[in-house]
Amino acid sequence: MKTIYTYTNGRFEPKQGTIVREFPLVLHVNGREIATLIASPHDLRFLVAGFLRLQGFVDSVDDFHMLSVCEDFGIANVRIKGELPERLKPVLTSGCGTGITFTMPVAAKLCGNIGAASPVDPAAVFALMDALAREADNYRSHGGIHSAAVGEPDGTILLYAEDLGRHNTLDRIAGEALLKRVDLNGKMLVTSGRISTEMAAKAAQLGIALIASRTSPTDMAVKMCADAGITLVGYLRGNKFNVYAHQERLAVPATAGATLRPARTVPSSPIAGVTGVILAGGASSRMGSNKALLPYKGGRFIESIYRQLKEIFPEVIVVTNAPEQYAFLPCKKVPDIFPGMGALAGIHAGLTHSGTPAIFAVACDMPYLNSDLIRHLAARADEGGVLIPESPLGLEPLHAFYGRGCLAAIEVTLLHGERRIVSFFDRTNVKKIRQDEIARFDPAFDSFRNINTPADYFSLRDGEKRGGGPLSEPGQELGRAIN
C-alpha cells in the first residue's frame, strides 16, 4: 500500500492505495540475451513460453530443454531444441501492451533535465486535460486512439498528437518539438494512456515537469518521476485526481480554503483489544464457487485480507464451517454456533471465540480495505456495543466493530430466527460514523465494495491490470452485501 494524495474541490486528502507493478524480465535463450520483457510480475513462466511460441521459436512443450525464471534477479534462462535465427530484427509495434525501446534512461541521470518549475494551479491541469479531450476527435468517433498534448502552466496546448500507441503519441510530440524548435522544458504533459516507465523516461528526457493521465501509473513510473523531479498525476476525472509524486509542486489557492494535509504515519504495532474477524461462511451462490479462494494478487482472495488485518490486529479469526479449505492460513478457524443464520451468526461466532473485548468483522470478498480508516474507527470502538460506518448506500455492517457487550443481544436475535445483522441494533448501543468522516480517508467509499458474481470478479481483475485497486474505474460498481 502507498499513500496517495487525492485532490477534490480544492483539498488534498491522503489515502492508501495500490499501484500496478511493472517487472522487467531479461530473457536469455540458448545462451543469448534476446529481449527484456516489461510485464506484470505474475505467471512469468507462462509469459516466457507464450512469447517464444508466438515468435515461432517453439511449437510444443517438448521443444523446451529448460525453462527457468529467477524473480529475484529478473532473469529467465531458456534452452530450446531449435536454434535461434542468427540475426533477430526487432519490430516497433503500436500496440499499447508492448513495444520495443533500445535505451531506458536511468532516472538518476534525468534529474538535471527538468528546470526549476513554478508551482502549478490544479485548475490548469484540469484545463489542459479538457483541451486534450476537445482535440481528440478521432477517439470520440471510432475509439482505439490514444492522444497526448503538452501545454503551458496556464493550461493552453502547445502541441497535440494521437496514435494507436500511447508511446507513439509522445514520440510524435518530441519529433514535432524538435523540428519546430519548441522547448518542452518545464511544460506539462497530459495523456489518455497509462503512465509506464517508458513514458516517464521519455518525458524526463524532454524536461517535462508534470505528467497527468486519465488512468494509472505503474510503480516503476512513480519511482522514476519521484527521482527525476516530475509531478505525477493519475485518474484525473471530473473535479478530482490522484498525485503520486511531488504533490508539493501543485499550488492550492488559499482562497479555496485548501490545505495539504501530511500523510498520517500508520502505526506498525497491532491495535490491542480488538480481533480481526473474516466472515467466510457465505454460500457464494451467485459466484458459483468459493469467493474466498479465487486467485488474487498472487494468492487467494482471503489471503490478501488476512495479511492486511494481521498488520492491524493482534489476532485474526476466520469464521467458517469448512476449516479444511483454509488450512493455508496460520490463524484460528471457528464454526458458526448458529449454522445457517448468515453473517450475523458469523459475527456471533467471532465474538464468542475472540480473546479481546471487541472484534472488527469484515466479509471475505472485500478487496479495497483501507488500513488508515480501520485504525481510525478502531480508536473509537466501544466494547459495549456497535461502531458502524455509513456510506452513501447506508450502514455498512460488514465493515464494523462489535463489542462483547452486544453478544447477548445478538443471541436473542438469532434465537428469534432473525438473521439480518441490523436486526439486533435496537437491543444494544449503536454508534454511527458519518459519511463525511469516512470520506476523509476513503472519498470514493471503496472500502465497502465487494464481489458477488463472475462479472464482478473479472471487472476487478481487469481494473487491477489497468491500474489497480480502488483507484481503477470511478463509477464502476462492484457488489455490496447487506445483511
UniProtKB/TrEMBL annotation:
Residues 461-483 are annotated as: Disordered. It is found in: Cytoplasm. GO terms for cellular component: cytoplasm. It catalyses: Mo-molybdopterin + GTP + H(+) = Mo-molybdopterin guanine dinucleotide + diphosphate. Its main location: cytoplasm. It is an enzyme of class 2 (transferase). Residues 276-422 form the MobA-like NTP transferase domain. Keywords: Cytoplasm, GTP-binding, Magnesium, Metal-binding, Molybdenum cofactor biosynthesis, Nucleotide-binding, Transferase. The active site is at C96 (cysteine persulfide intermediate). Its cofactor is Mg(2+). One of its GO terms (molecular function) is GTP binding. InterPro entries: Cytidine_deaminase-like, FdhD, MobA-like_NTP_Trfase, Molybde_CF_guanTrfase, Nucleotide-diphossugar_trans. GTP binds at L279, A280, G281, K291, D336, D365. Mg(2+) binds at D365. GO terms for biological process: Mo-molybdopterin cofactor biosynthetic process. Its EC number is 2.7.7.77. The N-terminal domain determines nucleotide recognition and specific binding, while the C-terminal domain determines the specific binding to the target protein. Belongs to the FdhD family. Belongs to the MobA family. Transfers a GMP moiety from GTP to Mo-molybdopterin (Mo-MPT) cofactor (Moco or molybdenum cofactor) to form Mo-molybdopterin guanine dinucleotide (Mo-MGD) cofactor. This is Multifunctional fusion protein. It comes from Geotalea uraniireducens (strain Rf4) (Geobacter uraniireducens). The gene is fdhD.
